[in-house]
Every structure is written in C-alpha cells, then in structure tokens.
Amino acid sequence: MFLSKLIKYSRVVVATLLLTACGSSSSTEIDGNATTYIDANSTTSGNTSTEDKITLKIYVAGESIEEFNHMKTLPFNADGTLNGTANSKDEYGWMVPFAQRLQIRDSNLAVQWVGANCWSNQNTYECSDATYTNSTIGHTSALAGSTIESWQIVFGEELANQEHCYDIAFASRGGNDLNIDLSATTYEAQLKELVLDLDQGSNCRTHPIVYVTAHMLDTGSMNSTHSQSDVDGWLERQKAYYVDITKRVVDDLNSDGRNIRFIDMWTPIYEDTKSTAFPTETWWITENGVRKPDLEKIHLDGTQHPARLASIFMGESVADQINISEIKALK
Question: Across residues 224-231, what is the average pLDDT?
C-alpha cells in the first residue's frame, strides 16, 4: 500500500505543489479555495457576527483516516444536529465534518486545506469524487499506510523547505506505528521530531498552532475480544500508545514560543461522550457478556477506517476541542 502511494506521489507532486502554495498570512476574507458550508435549512447557530471572515490554512501530516474523505451530503444541520442517521459505508473521513462543525461554532471561520495531494477515495486512491461542495477538493499531505518514518521519507522535505503556508497543522499519527509493533520509546521520539518539524515548517508563520491528535479508537493492538480481560487489555495498550504518549509529547514541547496542543480522538468513543450531533449514541455493544467497542458500527467493512457516523463524530469531537479565540487571534 505504501509503495503504491509513493509511486502516485512521485507522479503528481510537482503539479500539486504549484496548486497549494499560499500567501504570507491567514486570509481575512473567504478564499476561492476555502471550504465553506451553506445549509439548506434556515436555522443558524454559533457566532454569526459581521466580523471579518477568516480563512484558516490547515496542513495535515496524517494517515489514511485523514487522506480518505468522501462525503456526499453535509454531516450536520445548521444547528449542529446530525443530518441523517444512516451509517453509510460510502461516506467517510473526518475532515469535512470538522470544517463544517468549526464553521457552525463560528460562522466567520472557513478552512483551506493545504498539502501535496488531493483527498482520495479509499478504494481507488484517486482524487475524491464525492466531497460535499463538489467544487473544491481538499489538499493534504496525509499518507495512507504510512508510519511516521515512511511519511517523513515522502513529505519530510516539504517541511524542511517550508513549501506551504499554514496557520494550523495536525500531527495525526499512531495507527500504523502501533500496527507494526514499533516500540513506544521509538514512536514517542519520532512523534516529537515530527511535531518540531511542523512547528518550523510553515512559510508564513514562525509558530503555527500544531494539534497533536490521539488516534481514534480502532483495532490497533487487538488480538482477541472473546473475554472482558482481552478487551480491557487491548484498550489499555491502545490508550497508552495513542493518548498517553501524545499528551507527553505535547507537554514536553509546548514551550519556547511553540503552540502545541492536544486533541483527543480516542476518549470520546471510549467514554461514549455525548455531543450535539450524538446526544444518545452508544459506540459499545455487549456480546456473550463481554462489553466492547462496536467495531462493525465504527468502521467500514474489514478496515480500520471510520464509517459515516464515526467520521462525523470524530470531526465534531475535534472541532469542539478547538479554542476558537486562539485561532481567531491568528489573523
């Protein structure tokens, strides 16, 4: 999988880098390439003041769940409630839900995704053909199947050469590193290096905000779910890798003028957190007396990628953890 992505990258990187180069600061009016959402219903929510519009340029150093984005309809109604309860396997990715939820929280915000390649369809790796706007496909430097080490091989020079302007970066890692049994010590060191590279990688901000995400709950490190002890042990190992290491990295690096922030994508599913879009949802099931995450509901068939509902929940969870005042101060 990684090799196929590497070949694809070599064919398109020159053209896409030309498309994603950006200016010297975050925009104070809606950019032609910005992702904005206008709802069909008339209900409005969040901040609807007449302040200047702010387009946030966002770079994503992620994995497959950040690269694959295929949404046919708006995830949310204008008041933040869920737009349809179907758990489609043909809609996935948390980028679109994140951007829409952020704009629901403050209508003066829009997102412009920057990076080397376009969002992809999961099965074809071609540019996504079903994002909601159908006019602007987000760009990204997320790379399906990549560990931090292999991501750096493909995209590390983008950061070293400051090839993109971004106000915000996401370091969204962990799933593939855990799957290859990379030691926790090595993973933590590599994650620190990536975060420092993202801090210095923008050509328009000395210290962009870097959100380091705890990977969403998935099947990583799972051997069995036949007993409660199996499930509990699996989730303890996963939390230590996805959440605890990420928190340590953020705590260690959030100094010297850097703006390093923790975003938790793991705990909302683990704790069945209630939200505006999912006030009564449960992500757990009990089978044969064993309580465990409902992986069939959370993921697409036979994959670790989130289906529609979990994608929307993840996007909402991330957006709701963002400090709006902090990002609006970027203008």
Answer: 96
Would you state the structure tokens that stand for residue 207, as one six-digit string? 């210290």
**Is residue 293 pLDDT above 90, yes or no?**
yes
Least Cα distance to 119 among 91, 147, 157, 100 occurs for 91
CB 70 within 8 A of CB 311: no
Residue 36 has pLDDT above 70, yes or no: no
Total count of domains within the chain: 1
3-state secondary structure of 185: helix
Print the SS3 string covering 9-25. HHHHHHHHHHHHCCCCC
Query: Could you tell me the pTM of the whole model?
Result: 0.88
What number of other Cβ atoms are within 10 A of residue 202's Cβ?
Answer: 24
- The answer to whether the beta carbons of residues 67 and 120 sit under 8 Å apart is yes
Mean pLDDT of all residues belonging to the chain: 87
Domain containing residue 209: CATH number = 3.40.50.1110
User: Which range marks the domain in which residue 293 is found?
Assistant: 2-328
Torsion over CA: 236, 240, 246, 247 (sign): positive
